[in-house]
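Risk register update: the risk of archive-format incompatibility is retired. Evidence:
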Amino acid sequence: MIEGSIVALVTPMHADGAIDWKRLDELVEWHIEAGTDSIVPVGTTGESPTVTPAEHCDIIARVIDVAGKRVPVIAGTGANSTQEAIELTEAAKAAGADACLLVTPYYNKPTQEGLYLHHKAIADAVALPQVLYNVPGRTACDMLPETVARIAELDLVIGIKEATGDVNRTLKILELCGTKLVVYSGDDATAVDLMLNGARGTISVTANVVPDKMAAVCAAAVTGDAEKARSLNEPLMGLHTGLFLEANPIPVKWALAEMGKIERGIRLPLTELSEQYRDAVREALRIAGAIN
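Archived output:
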């Protein structure tokens, strides 16, 4: 079982938007050394909407190669076209991914039946474990708990990243799915509460900047040590909120650049963090111990 601190990895870019492969390699090594339990390349935080299909597959393959089986890699392969999601998932399997992360199809607003058939089609086409990803605030598509339970009957569906931040909703999914599905938080601010209520980890934006600290928080939370998990999490709360002051991954890429981990590259239509939010993100980084 993949559990603990799972980083939703940024895609480093040069100032002109070209992918910075050297920095990508360095980030993967940093995460492994810091205790990150698993890596998710090319999800929302990895700017999947703006990389080309070829780049998307190349990033997945590069992360898998650098990780070298030291940690599991859950490849972001979601798309709002079922056929495109199948093709990306096929490429991830060929590259050696341990699982794939499939965001609910965005913009075209499928029905609950459409969501089931989407995941069934991918499972029928590619023998790679699937982690569902529900983030209705970004996709305008909400996968209901009853639909999650239905999809969980598919043999290759192993988990869900539930990013609504609603603990009661997570409890409903756990009740309906039992041991058929591993639940991961997709909301850093409520991740500890979700883990203490049965989630097995978090697919985290905050882990990009404080991987060691998020690993420690998750280790405590998944073993039920509420006091320790909350104590370790408290200095990170500013990051959990500050890294979402503008659309992800704008703040986290800016924060990593402040830390000297990446250049300030980001692709349009995303832009660099607005001046008005920079002091707040800097202060959150200081409180968390990421910068002096």
